[in-house]
Amino acid sequence: MKKLLLLLAPFAIFMISCTKQDLPREPIDESEWLRQERGYVVASDFSCSYYVVETSRGYSILRNWGGSSPFPGEVMYGNFSNYGVRTFYNRSGRYLMNADVNDYWLSYFAAMDQIQWLCGDIYNMRKADSTLISTDSLVLRE
Fold it and tell me: What are the residue boundaries of the structural domains of the chain, listed by start?
């Protein structure tokens, strides 16, 4: 019994001394981001790093660059009309994220065809999939 207490006492002291503190995030200047292009995530899946964003100029294919992919329906701001790795502001989650713009200014069917080719059969348009949302419910306002 004494040996057990001698082993558990240092472990208990160690566990009590460990605390979790969230690091404070730097505030995001929304006025800078809200002047940029707005997009809505229309197709996203946790098993694929690519997702589709609808903008006023068409659809863009983005690849997640570290971190998690956004959920369908989330609002994002940034430069969706140029290739390359860029920083985007996810206003729904209120955080900054990096993504690689793979293609832009696509039609809906071209974007769905390309993401189906990139991600495999998870975006099969013939079956009803909860990861796809109707673009009729999204209204783009500039």
Answer: 31-128
Q: What is the pTM of this model?
A: 0.71
Paired tokens of 71: 């959920």
Alpha-carbon gap, residue 131 to 97, rounded angstroms = 20
* pLDDT at position 92: 94
Q: Report helix, strand and coil shares of the chain as percent, to nearest 5.
A: 25, 30, 40
Distance (Å, whole) CA 134 – CA 132: 7
How much is the average pLDDT of 58-75? 94
Which pairs with CB-CB distance under 8 Å and at least 24 residues apart come from 45-49? 45/69, 45/119, 45/122, 45/123, 45/131, 47/119, 47/122, 48/115, 48/118, 48/119, 48/120, 48/122, 48/123
Return the number of other C-beta atoms located less than 10 Å from residue 24's C-beta. 6
